[in-house]
Amino acid sequence: MSQVRGKSYPPVKRKKRGGDTKAALLLLPSFLIVSVFVYVFITYTIGVSLAENWMPAKPSMAQGPDPFATYKNLFENPRFQSDLRNSFIFTVLFLLLTVIAGFFIALAVHNMGRTKGFFRGVFLLPYALSFIVTGVVWRWLFNPDSGVNLFLKYSGVASAYKSITGEELRPEWLTSATTVGDISALLEKIIPGGQYIQVEMGIPLALIPVVIATSWQLLGFAMAMFLAGLVSIPEELREASMMDGATGSRYYRSIAVPMLAPIAITTLVILTHVALKIFDLIYAMSGSGIGFATDMPGIFVYESMYKALKYNTGAAASIVMLIIVCIVVVPYLIHSNRETNGR
Amino acid sequence: METRTKKMYKNAHARHGKNSRRVQFIILCLLVPFFVMPFYVMIMAALKTPQYADVTTMWLPPSPFSLDGLQEAWGKLSPNLMNSFTMVVPAVIISSAIGSFNGYLLSKFTFRFSSVMFTMMLVGMFIPYQSILIPLVKFLQLVNLYGTTPGLILVHVVYGIPITTLIFRNFYVSIPKEMVEAAAIDGAGILRTFFSVIVPVSIPGFVVAGIFQFTNIWNDFLFGVITISDPTKQPVTIALNNLSGTQTVNWNVLMAGALIAAIPTAVAYLALGRFFIQGLTAGSVK
């Protein structure tokens, strides 16, 4: 918590070596059950991903000649290749939009007087909704025959576009099958094994509406985090910097931004892991999309396991997801743990 | 002389601040429609009659007004709405209670491996749940809870422990240790201290953790769809998604359904928004 983190905790005196054994024993049940549900279960899923033919009715962990065959097939699968591409592009675009806009909205809201609470409430309201609700509603806002396109039509943007370029302006949004900025040819040359890439390595345009809808829902979260950080900056610091002749922008550059760095990192880690895990919103909004343009690893796992009944493939894909998320989250957890205990 | 220059600076800043504040205010006002738009569409559509609910007239207000769409959506979703409530309420209470006890242990006592145990538990709130679904279903079948609401409650309680523990640990840091020590001097043990000293001052913590868990669990989709296959027992998020995939359902009924599924969390948030923000920041930052 930003405010708490800013203060240093009073150092805790160790009573005896090992500390309170009783407290440790009382924490143990929670620790054990969470550990079973997290670590033992993950181990089981790894087992399924390496097994030759695991089925719910016949849960055999027996491995075939090549235990990693499922993983090899997975990475050669064009759909999963699209998923990895989509996940990466979605995460980058979503973070850029949400963190930058969230930061500036927080600065502006922080400067408001009586209207502060109103703006904060409006911008955060979407966060209280279910991803499913967001997906269902935004699916219709980006329907080519309605929603946003009606705006373009009635505001005159569409006809202005037509008179200038001679072409019809009617974005296909979610139903677009176009990929821009394809760098597959380049990747083929520079990455060993690049010839195995079977999908266009570019930005599928159908991902744009998905990014907008997800940002709509989570911008308020980013804003609230930055607002909490701004509130924790002591007012004296601002006054002192003003006395020293710092202008508004100078104040933000040399004081506010550095002081907000820890909270920015936390926000970034949390939003990154949400983006990498994204499932229900896209599942409800566009599903896999045309040519898997909006497919995601989370949807792939779900459909492999519960639609195609390919448990090994689903398990392997979920472990790939887990590894990607852990690369982002574990260093952060270890770091913040060390920081709180070091004080 | 010096004070005069300072004053001049101050005035300049005040003027500069006022202008830029006005610009910022206008920008924020322009952003409001973007955030409100989907709510507007949901509400307007829900109040239209089926024959006037055309997606090509999405932005127009309803004329004539009608509650038919809401009624039809209510008829389809209300059993699932009740399922959600019977699942969410116990799950929130149990996971908050456990989190409060864990938070107390972790913030007021030092013991070996406490931070390792805490960090290992926190990992549980970040993992993609897809990676535990297969053994989770097997486990629920093993204990005969597969396909039942108590089974889903158990799942939400266990995976809720990391976040509630974190929220309460951060909350209890602000409670003076002396209170706990005084109770210990009076001869109270760990458990008695918890119930007589900590619990009475924990109301704000419970509100924060409660509202946060309420929205988390209410909005869940994956656990519900995996552990409960009987459509009459599924939570409302899954029923709404099924409704969305049905071709025979009118568009305005679907929007009314989305509204119904959104109302409980939206109301909770509007009523307790302040705590919601606290939960958000307390629960996400260590």
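The longest helix of chain A spans residues 78-111.
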